[in-house]
Protein 1
Amino acid sequence: MNPNYYLVLSAILFCIGVLGFLLRRNAIVAFMSIEMMLNASNLAMVNFAHVHGGLDGQIAAFFVMIVAAAEVVVGLAIIVTIYKTRRSASVDDANLLKF
Amino acid sequence: MIALVTAAQVAFWALAPLMVLCAIGMVVSRKPVHSAVFLAGMMVMLAVQYAALDAPFLFVVQIIVYTGAIMMLFLFVMMLVGVDSSDSVVETIKGHRLASVLAVLGFAGLLLFGIGNAIKGPAAGLEQANAAGGGNVPSVAELIFVRYVFVFEATSALLITAAVGAMVLAHGEQVFPKIGQKLTAARKMRAYAETGQHIGPRPNSGVFARHNAIHVPALLPDGSVAESSLSQTLSSRGAYIDAGELRAPTDAAFAEISKVTDNAGELE
Amino acid sequence: MAASGLFSLAWLMIAIPLVVAGFLLVAGRLTDAWGHLLATLAVIASFLIGLVLFIDLLGRDASQRSVSNSLYELFSVGRWKFDVALQIDQLSILFVLLITGVGSLIHVYSIGYMAHDERRRRFFAYLNLFIAAMLTLVLADNYLLLFFGWEGVGLASYLLIGFWQHRNSAAVAAKKAFVVNRVGDLGMTMGIFALLAQLGTVNFTQVNERAAGLSPFWATLIGFLFLLGACGKSAQVPLQSWLLDAMEGPTPVSALIHAATMVTAGVYLVVRSHALYAQTEAASLAVAIVGTVTLLVGAWIGTSKDDIKKVLAGSTMSQIGYMMLAAGLGPIGAAFAIFHLITHGFFKANMFLGAGSVMHGMDDDVDMRHYGALAKAMPITFITFAMGYLAIIGFPFTSGFYSKDHIIEAAFEKNTVLGVLALLGAGVTAYYMTRLMMMTYFSQKRWRQGVHPHESPLVMTIPLMVLAVFSVIGGALMLGWITGWLAPATGGEEEHLSLVHFSGIGLLTMAVVAVGVVIGWWLHRRDVPDTAPATRNPLVIAGRRDLYGDALNEALLMRPGQHLVAGLDSFDRGVVDGAVMGSAGVFGGLSSAVRRLQNGFVRSYGLTMVVGVVLVGVVLILGQLA
């Protein structure tokens, strides 16, 4: 089976993730989109590992997962904090940093 | 001869369209919970792809960590910030939606053009690499704990930091000044001075009545309902018992008692 | 020769008043009670040092009398060295004695005069500052240090004219004096630059030695530049206009700074530079002409003013005109200039202080038309003033008689026209001084209501008496030796002058003076109108308006200056500022347009990022394909 198909799938998932991040205002959904982008890249890495016959790609995907887990923990904590002070989980409402 | 169809091909062609659909569903569903479910589905299917790509360890980790832990965390947070808060469909930034779609299409084109055909030739496969360590998991373990041991230790530090950071962030910060005894007393005195509001505690529910349940309003000496004993939540739900209903048995009992005294007077 | 013994301590003369001035200004109200006494003692100490040095010099041989005392090197640039060094010679020691002597008397007088002023301590601090600066001016052994003192006295003069700064007129007068002096200072500085460029030194001795090597052009130029400086400082035409306004200062200031000492600095400068002026006939003649014109202008103004201090100010201009005339006549005239300068210092300070005494008794009224018949009310003031009066008109055997007559004679020797004009000036001087005497001390009482003239306290009259004595006998005291004494310093020769001295010109002068006195007496012997009578006499009107000096300055200098500045200002605003502000505005506009990109929406930033990634990717791919 042509390994390029996995790459194409990975690219499509990544682009959908980007689109989700750009379009959704709910901070949690935006975060999910980011997770999806990470997953898409993981798929590409696992595929490369398969193609090249080495396990390093899998290790990279594994570390990405760890970092993603840490990132999600901190990111969700931030969302909770913002929600507590502003009663809103919309990324558009957190707009203090502007002109 | 029919071309040999491998399990990997079946898994790919069966699940890839579903994955894309799940991803699109995640982006377009208005309720975050639906998004989460779509995402979880996509991740499980992704785990299957990992299995097809000779990565059983990642297959398990993907399911346990992503769908098991991270998605649960998402759901918890969603619960905290309100499950039913759905996004409005109206885009507030002018022209943002069109521009985003165009930019992402451009990006997709770029990606597909750049790496869509990057791999020449068939895959080498992982049989040899997996066999070297006596299976996928031991091989991966050897890599993690030998070659990448420093990275691994660094990630442990990262995880601890993230845990501490999350605790610090999520720990309730005093956003509004704490209302202590002193402040309460001062506010009460001010309210008394300005509007003549009663300084003492509010009346309990059910005073002077036969019930002291929370859904029973207190009665003032003249028989009227003490408004300050009512809970707004309960009264908006219409859960309060009518005051007159309460008063009736009391009045009846009182009438009985006074009748007895009258009779006593007659007896004398 | 180098300084030794006492002479090495000559710097104390400057340092004592300077330190006291600084101390009084810094210590503030702590010293209110006794600050004036300390200041007076400081000047007296300087005077005593000067006196000791003078006596020491007297006992020396003529060739040993110039002592230079190098204190330290100010800075050196290549071949040029600038020292802070004092030169004590025949000329400067006379000035030192005049400044500190008259200065001490005026300090004493001021104790009484300023007794009721709440800022008396400050006044005395400024006076001491002035004394220090003036001594620096006359003791300097080079033009640069002289310029330090020159500016110092300008500053002190500014501070003291504007001492009553709550009065607008005083503040304006102080500013005017400062600005006009700046014009003169321009000449001074350029003259010093030219000297440095041509001779490579600013040291008096070296300049005198090398002056002969100057080209006529440069000698004339430097002469004119120094003349400009002298005109500014000494209120000579055309920079005379500030002196009359300077009378806004307290009267002791007018006496010390604007009569006896500072305004004579110009004469000192010209005499100091005698070697330069010897090289250039044109500049010398210009000095004499400026002096002559000023002596007539000052006298003219003196005849038409009713303000007693302004009459005396006009008279001061006029007398300094005589000195400048004499200084322009060459070496022998220079000695007479200094001679007249010193006697003038005595009698003019005397008369100014007398005028102050009169004002003191008349509730600070300066209008002579409100005086009259004060001779009986203020006998001491009257008698001492009369001594000064006799001296200034040149009554025989008084000090003015010796000094002024010699100038007139010298002028006749040099040039008949200058002589005749100087003679005329003497007659006019006699007239306006007689007018002043008549209006103030004789004729009938014209006092305002509630004014009770009274004699001033002793602390004020004793300086008057001392100065009156010197006004009378000062000339005779110095007559015998002044020319010989000054000869080495002024480049002149000793002349033997006799006490009883009646030449033809001298007699003629006395006759002209007598005519002036008689006219003055005749016109004012009876009623003096209470207010200045309206007149159509253009000469009187011109005199009352200071000969249109201010109008001239305004028309010739101020208006074009204003137009120029207004033009420059609009150029600056329109073109320079326009270019700067315009470019700033362009960037500001661009910035506020670009600023809109920072709209606070994370999603927009994300979009920007994606677009950026796409662009970079496209560029990379195109680069690969190309």
Protein 2
Amino acid sequence: MDILTAMEISGSGLKAQRARLNVAAMNLANVNTTRTLEGGPYRAKSVVFSAEPVNSFSSTLEQATSELRKVEVTRVVEDDKPFKEVYDPSHPDADENGIVQMPNVDVPEQMVDMLSARRGYEANISAVEAVKSMAQRALEISRG
Amino acid sequence: MINSKLFGSLQMMQQALNLRMEKQGVIQANIANMETPGYKARELPFEEALSKAVDRQGQVAVSRTDSRHLGGLDVQPASFVEVEDREVDLDEEILKLSKNQLMYQIATTLVGKKLSGLKSAIDEGGQ
Amino acid sequence: MKTLPLAQVQKAGIEQLRQTTESAAPGTGFAEVLKDSIQSVNQQMSEAGKMREGLIAGEHANIHETMIALEASGVSFKMMTKVQQKAIDAYKEIMRMSV
């Protein structure tokens, strides 16, 4: 493996964790959205990751690169948990019984997801820093 | 052709550096995929791989395939990657990351010293 | 002990040196060995140069291998130069043994 492949792998990790963070933030922002463009309350979303082979840019057989996987966000799915039902007759979207259908966003779950995504993001940053400093040390071989 | 009498263990040190880089890739892939459903952690058991690459005389087996690599390597690193039966443990991977980086840096420093030592020895030789 | 004239000893010594350098079996004389070492060092240096070009051109990113190849070929060159120098010095030394 080489530094450029490493960047591709960890770069994909950063992108994936960022996507996860963004979706959690979007879910939290829409926790009270009762009207969406599609009609009806907002449905919580989540990202789906999948492991993909890396584009080995230096294709020699001597590398384990064929075994390495990067990560990609293949889909964004909607949570099909039922909407929360809240009794609030004064709400503009209340039905004839005064029940409002609220988004199925689980706030604690989203918070945990955000923290976890942030941790994952930082871990990928550490990986990038590690391989970067390895490359720099390799360049210094000639300095004895 | 590298005169192995002159360079001694340099071949092995280079092989160690190559394997450290491979291992680095495995660790980074684990970290990138720590949340990927179904992804099992990979390992590259370094010491095992290195000792397999060094034959009984302590010299690295010469590659038949790629003459670009001086006295190259007859090792298929892909065959050393092991898939564990567990998911990625981030704390463990971060630890492995630091350790692998450190070992790589130690190796590059030693290689640098060896080469500069050789240069001095040649300069001083028989003055 | 029979004493030999100095000129005769010197002549024998030079003859022996000449025979060593142009030995009966071609390819084993000193000149051959020197030529072989120049060729192999040249090859090592050109391979290292190719790795360097490949790294710069982005064909590969194997930094440590490239650096080691470059340094090692430099060391080989230094070694060869030193050996040649020593050989030439030794030859001159022998030649100086004349009166």
Protein 3
Amino acid sequence: MSASGPGPTVSFRYDGAALTAPAGSTIAAALIGNGILSWRMTRRRGEPRGLFCGIGQCQDCLVDVNESPALRACQVFVRDGDDIAASRSVGWRDAD
Amino acid sequence: MTVALPPARGAEDPPAAAEIVVIGAGLVGAACAHALATAGRGVCVIDRAGPVAGTTAGGEGNILVSDKVPGPEAGLALRSARLWRELADRAEGRFEFEQKGGVVVAHDDEQLTALRALARAQRDGGVDAELLDGPGLRAAEPHISPGLPGGVFYPQDCQVQPMLAASWLLAEASRLGAHLAWGADVLAGEGHDRITAVQTSRGRIAAGAVVNAAGPWSGLVAERLGGRLPIRPRRGHILVTEPLPPLIRHKVYESDYVTTVMSDSDDAACSAVVEGTRAGTVLIGSSREFAGFDRRPSLPVLTAMAARATAIFPFLTGVRVLRSYVGFRPASPDHLPVIGADTTVAGLYHASGHEGAGIGLAPATAELVTALLAGSTPPVDPAPFAPARLAAAEGLA
């Protein structure tokens, strides 16, 4: 599945699946363009979450990108080769 | 999907008469209402806005004995910590009560010597305090800065989610028959020398007695009721981080926090207070300043707080801050709570002036208020907290 438009595209992985998106997309746009509407579960009740406010305020769209946990998908641009995973919604995991 | 909401409490009009009117539905007012209703008194709680609309929602939920220098407030804090544990047992986990303990850290040997002297004096007053050397400090808090020489562990310090706790206390009071009426602003009191009624924006309530638990607004409420209470809002900031795995085990703060609490300067004073919450977020305080009720956050203050917190927990430099908030503490001129009868209006009682300790001191405050209203002897001597001391200090007595 792909969400390529007429311009340049980038390739990335989401939970292991190879996907593409128009270059310059936010991760949220890239995922939604591939039909993925939810990319994390809430920590307590396990309810699905995805894009809500879209402007960096609500913290609902957190996603794990490469080695960085809990980034806001609406505020980060997808880059070629990104390895994106559904988020555990908890940041800064390398304490030890 | 529809969600079935519980019937709204506080929507009904206030009753025409109540044995005792409690003004303020923050934690202090909620604790007073709960204690009075438990003692069989007829209670009506009113609030200008609604439950936990003010200071209770603007703080951290600390129940501390560690930051009290030996004296009357320390006795009240010890009593209150015990009452909190009893309430938490009854609430069965409904308000995130944690007896997590507090760790106070020193930055250098001079601070450590002073901190240890304070801890020894506190021990004589019944506070549990365990001296920690550098390795002991790192055993208690594995992610703490390796440069810190030591500190003191206070196992009696607790944490609570104050909004949940106040809501639980109000719900319990309501179950025991208390009326709750929100959106009722106090306009004036009635009666000569003795208060007989409170006029509110939602009607008049004839009252046998009135408890003023309006926090930083309690001075204004006292004035409208014909009394006097010199309470000023002392502003504080808190930073909230993204949710993290549990990395900070205790409430951790700098030893100069106590000095900051006791200072009288109008300028912003900062000292680091860091703690994790059940939700995973880390709360970073603290600041104290007299800036009226200005809700605009101060970037220099937030920056100073963050710098101090990262000096204690270096890993915080890699953690995102989600938001900040400000709150207003009810500050009395001598930094002691003001609990007891107004000096001029009979039947008016104040439960205020706790500054940043209102959450922790609320149950013991409620116990004092309940005893004073019943004419009985409370377990803690109320004399040091009497409003009359302030009038005397001002030459008004």
